[in-house]
Amino acid sequence: MLVSVALAPVAQAAEAAAPAAGPIPIQDFVRHAEFSAAKISPDGRYLAITVQRGDQFALAVLDLKDMSLLKQTVLPDDKSVGAFNWVGAKRLMFTAVRNFGRFAAPFNTGEWFAMDADGSRSRTLISYGTKDATQSSKAVSYSETFNMMETLPEDETRALMMVNSSGGGEGVDTEIVSINTLTGQRRVITRAPAKNCSIALDANKEPRFADCFVSKDDAGNYAELTDLYRREANGEWTLVNRSKANGRRIVVVGSAKDGRIYAQSDDGKAPAAFGLLDQATGEFKPLFQDPVSAPSEYIVGSDGATILGIVSRTGAPRVELIEKDSPDTAIYASLANAFPGKFVNFSTATTDGKQIVVAVGSDRQPEELYLYDRDTGKARFLIRDRDWLDSEKMASVRPFSFTTRDGLTLHGYLTVPNGAKLENLPMIVNPHGGPIGPRDDWGFNWETQLLASRGYLVLQLNFRGSGGFGSGFQDAGHRQWGEKMQDDLTDVTQWAIKKGYADASRICIYGGSYGGYASLMGAAKEPDLYRCAVGYVGVYDLEMMYKKGDIPETESGRRFLERTIGSDKADLQRRSPVHLAAKIKIPVFLIAGEKDRRAPREHTEAMRDALVAAGHPPEVVIIQAGEGHGFYNEANNLALYTKMLAFFDKYIGAGAGKVDVGQPTSGDAAARH
Predict the structure, then answer these.
(1) pLDDT tens digits, one per residue of 99-130
(2) Strand, coil or helix: what is 205?
(3) Cα(264)–Cα(12) distance, rounded to whole angstroms?
(4) Of 300, 296, 295, whose CA–CA distance to 347 is shortest?
(5) Strand partners, 237
(6) Which pLDDT does position 142 carry in this prediction?
(7) Within a 10 A sphere around the Cβ of 326, how many other Cβ atoms?
(8) DSSP-derived 3-state class of residue 185
(9) pTM reported for the whole predicted model
(10) Predicted confidence (pLDDT) per residue in 167-185, tens digit
(11) Distance between CA 78 and CA 58 in Å, rounded?
(12) How far apart are CA 49 and CA 70, in angstroms?
């Protein structure tokens, strides 16, 4: 039996709220989040939390009795604390990362450390480079990366980690190791049966399944195939499912405490189904499948293993609870009812399940944490992220759907300014990056909130190719750069005009990464639809994608480019904004990170030069030193969004035609700020 918990935002919240006395400072939006993750200790005495300190994340340990600070750890050399786990009642393991680029995942340094809650028994467990004889067991190759797989709170001296080794050539080798949390010594438990695998444990915390990704079909073309293996009692691997043979991909999600194996299965077309995998036969039994969207995440019980519900995100989050008899399900349902219009999730819990850290957030409210006590039935407030922002002054995010010119139903979100009617508003179309796989979502987004705080309606569309709606929908984006994916953005813009939401004379298009490409393509293909365009760390020359950046550095990356954009020179040029500069007549704002490896600065420089040659130079060009794929530094973001908002205001805002945002650039005279 499925219990449905639907999250329905209050549609009229924006109209009911009183308008703010003045605009919220830009600084308040670009400030880093106060924390990124929080985990309760197995015995419930402490809360470990990663907190922002300048441009770094530090690891803080708080005493849950009064939330007093017990220990704060800041890593040297501008490194941040990344993933962390309690490996015992008072012992933690954590890794180091570098935050480099808003659209890029933090760069993992590969180092792992351990310490007690009070900072004692601090140890380096894994590091790169040459070590002396006493430290040699901790040194690893630069080709190896370690990720926490399973903690063993009953034995704080041991944890299980997954190790990926590139070792040169195509593909990655994977093994599971047991690591001593006091000495760093490691013991190999098993190795994956093939390249590019992820290994899942059973209820006894034994490596049991390997999901292996195969990126090449029999003809040598890029493919997304999977092989599923089961590890037998003797340590040998048996092939359970091969998607190339039967067209069905099965991926193991995890194991319940009672031994059930959770999995997802899809046919390469429809959204994936969630269900159970028979460990002996490999047969998949579906428990839930949404007709539109794939599972985005899971509500996991206080035991850290049992899946209580599946979250799908066609629009606002929707939770299907599948464990109707679990006491945790009743607790979750009660908490969800206590926070109407918000998304509730279990974060972590104590070993005995009596205390649960609960995360609560919404479109207008950044995440806040509560501590639920099972004995008292009460939830105690712990901490709120971005508490300097008043949720009552934030914009509402409204899901929508519409039909494209070729009959495809697409879903997206409108961020409506606080206190405004959804009627004849200046609008910014904001295509997401990727484009194959990523998606826009319902929830708190500081950037769209910033834009909405200045009176702009922000439209985000999950165009074809976006993730979360099934493999068939995602695959529909291949070879559609500048074609149907671009048509989707044109169609939704015209839809918003016809619905009366947007003022047709006051619309700009702005996006990052692929969204930057789509913004400049929109300016070229629809010269009368938009009043200005902003390209942020975008790619503008499709031929260049084969020569610059990190994607073409691997064989699988080059195969992916062949599949998603093609390789015909004339066709690539036809769909590249740098070759369409003469068609772009509206004002353009270009931004790049000097150290960007995903969308190298050469793309922005080529777009700038093409516009200059066409006699229509971009109004502003920023190539920011020290930044990567998206800006991370707060001061750089403050300067960027100050200029960007002035640019929007000049062309579609209250100050249209009055604000000077910068001098036009030409040739190599592009401004660097």
Answers:
(1) 767 776 667 788 999 999 999 999 999 987 54
(2) coil
(3) 37
(4) 300
(5) 231
(6) 60
(7) 17
(8) coil
(9) 0.91
(10) 656 789 999 999 999 999 9
(11) 10
(12) 12
